[in-house]
Amino acid sequence: MPQHDHFPPEFLNGQRSRRLLWLAGVACIVFAAGLPSSGVSAGGFLKDDLDREPWEEGETKLPPPPDASRLIEFFGGQISPNHFFIDPETIDIGADGVVRYAQVVRTSGGATNVTFEGQRCETSEVRLYAIGAADGTWKPVRDSRWRPVNIGSTKNRHEMVLARDVFCPDQSIVRDKAEAIRNLKGSFKAKDSMP
Question: Could you tell me if 46 and 133 lie in one domain?
């Protein structure tokens, strides 16, 4: 047997070393079998991701202020003492994959907060576009940006309800406004399945 300066002789001759080499080979085969046979580029990205145009958000138009007579209450989480509402007339299913809506939150202390927001189902993100002023106008948010929906958090649990049960069931955008409204009305039934 030839001499190898970097391997001690007992490593090359022992039964234990053959088992280790065999296990290492099996591990490589199992790992390779788990990779997709096609669609992965050298950089690790799926070819579909490389072929896809970069996402671009569509134009966002502020809706009229919510109408209190049309508000639909939705389940905002078991812990929150607040009441959460959406004006169904403000729901917009964008071609860019974003659902935009006007939301009203009535706190247990009697305050009312009005916001215009969007949910991007593909990435589970939410964005605050504007805040409703007392005079019925919208005040655009200066540093409006996309942020992750707080999945599993008790803070802003209503965002998760809107994402999971109303606008993005199975992380897919609803087909139309009618489906969003049905889901919105059924959100109190969906609360029984909350983690």
Answer: no
- State pLDDT tens for residues 164-184: 999 999 889 999 999 999 999
Domain range for 45 is 1-52
d(CA 15, CA 3): 18
- DSSP assignments along the chain, one per residue: ----TTS-HHHHH-HHHHHHHHHHHHHHHHHHHHS-SSSB-TTS-BHHHHHSPPP------PPPPPPTTT-EEE---SS--SEEEE-GGG-EE-TTSEEEEEEEEE-TTS-EEEEEEEEEGGGTEEEEEEEE-TTS-EEE-TT---EE--TT-STTHHHHHIIIIII-GGG---SSHHHHHHHHHTHHHHGGG--
Instruction: Please write the tens of the pLDDT for every residue from 23-73.
Output: 555 555 545 555 454 444 444 445 555 667 898 999 999 999 999 999 999
Q: How many domains does the chain have?
A: 2
